Amino acid sequence: MALKKGAVKVANAKIIEQKASIVEEIKNKFENAKSVVLFNARGLKVSEVNELRRSLRESGSDYKVYKNTLAKRAVEGTDYDLASYLEGPTAISFSKDELAPVKIISDFAKDHKALEVKVGIVEGKLADVNELKEYAKIPSREGLLTMLAGGMIGVVRDLSICLDLYSKQKEEN
Questions:
Q1: Which end of the chain has the least Cβ crowding within 10 Å, N or C?
Q2: In whole angstroms, what is the distance from residue 145 CA to residue 9 CA?
Q3: How do the domains of the chain map onto residue ranges?
Q4: Using one digit for the tens of pLDDT, what is the confidence trace for 96-151?
Q5: 19 burial class (0-12, 13-18, 19+ CB within 10 angstroms)?
């Protein structure tokens, strides 16, 4: 069965169109995400990858492996110089939450040495591995609110004790 000359061009046009749509998808995800984490998940078992995906999905994060060439094209013209990080197998996690994927991936990397965090973007700023480790130490929003409420309760308690002592002092005089 012989191919016509135009058949190859149509196939190439379809492939180019598919790649362009993937590049556009990656661009949109970078633009809409509050945090992005690039990591290498090679060496993880399928069950471990599924566990990581489930954890990220529960936090509202997205995780996908793209071809490096397509990801490089997607970030061309942006403020992010990710070309050196897009070498070898690279998975990318996108999230509308600033810290959730950073915490999940960092915690997962502690238990699974095969996972290697490369770099991240948090609120529009490039963050290296050490910065991501620091971000991972920050308590969750709920934890921070609990700490704030605990601190405020302490202040109110101390104020009430002071007012009680003051009123007792005034009664004695």
A1: N
A2: 59
A3: 5-138, 139-173
A4: 888 888 999 998 988 888 888 899 988 888 888 888 888 888 887 788 888 888 88
A5: middle
Return the axis-axis angle of helices 129-137 and 100-111, rounded to nearest 10°.
100
pLDDT category, 8, cuts 50, 70, 90? low
- Judge contact between 128 and 79, C-beta under 8 A: no
Residue type, 69: T
Closest CA to 74 of 62, 92, 57, 56: 92
Residues ≥6 apart with Cβ < 8 Å to 140: 99, 100, 103
- Tally of CA atoms within 13 A in the half-sphere of 105 that contains its CB: 32
Cβ neighbours of residue 71 closer than 8 Å, sequence gap 6 or more: 26, 82, 86, 90, 92
CATH class of 5-138: alpha beta
Does 9 have pLDDT greater than 70? no
